[in-house]
């Protein structure tokens, strides 16, 4: 039986041929309102997104800074749960069969649903990758196998504090891409040390052939461009959500897309 090439793998292979870097925006499902999510996803693709990370709202998002925490709180006020998030993906998929969607969130909502039930539902909806922030690789082998059997990549975080052992464990289990957290702290922090990132990526690349995306602390075209010179993908979340927070409900999708177009131009320049 021929192995199915995931949408994530296809996207990165296409970008490698074009000698371009992936742009991966993060938005929280259901923020600021449920009816905005799918139009926002479509607008981000039109603005140059190669993969979309869609946040599953959770009441205690410990790795997230205040901006993404607020977005999660707004989505929870809108009663957005994991079923709604999967419905958004299915609706998006009806008109876009190629852009990979990665669900990013915490273990609790997935475990409440049941791992196998979640894996089946994610597959039916058209999810391509899952990143569970509080699932370390040591506890994820079974879930990764379950996802992979359904053609879904399990994506893991690595950080400046990751040991050589942790890098090896992630390299063994991960598929799709690896998300390198560029700083010690939460999302949206401002002190991005590019020299430190550049110094640490070779240790990861020595263990895996997967693309490595870098996120946390990317605020503008200039930092995005600098990150694109050392990484395979640029992940940007807090700054997009800030743009949307500062806009009127009618203009928030347009504001997000405008920012992403600027980032895309900077990366491609």
Describe the protein's topology:
Layout: H1 7-18, E1 22-28, H2 37-46, E2 52-55, H3 66-77, H4 82-93, E3 101-105, H5 107-113, H6 115-125, E4 129-132, H7 141-148, E5 153-154, E6 156-158, H8 164-173, E7 178-181, H9 194-205, E8 212-215, H10 221-228, E9 233-236, H11 238-245, H12 252-268
Parallel strand pairs: 1-2, 1-9, 2-3, 3-4, 4-5, 6-7, 7-8, 8-9
Helix pairs in contact: 2-4, 2-12, 4-6, 10-12, 11-12
Note down, in words, how this protein is organized.
This protein has a single domain, classed as Aldolase class I (TIM Barrel), CATH 3.20.20. Strands 5-4-3-2-1-9-8-7-6 form a nine-stranded parallel beta sheet. It has twelve helices and nine strands. The protein has about 270 residues and is an alpha/beta fold.
User: How many helices does DSSP assign?
Assistant: 12
CATH class: Alpha Beta
Helix content: 40-55%
**SSE series:** HEHEHHEHHEHEEHEHEHEHH
Give the strand order, joined by hyphens, for the main sheet. Answer: 5-4-3-2-1-9-8-7-6
- Unreliable spans are none
CATH topology: TIM Barrel
CATH architecture title:
Alpha-Beta Barrel
- Mind telling me the CATH superfamily name? Aldolase class I
Please state the average pLDDT score. Answer: 93
How is the biggest beta sheet arranged?
A: 9 strands, parallel
The total beta strand count reads 9
Structural class: alpha/beta
The N- and C-terminal alpha carbons lie at a distance of 41 Å
Rg for CA atoms: 17 Å
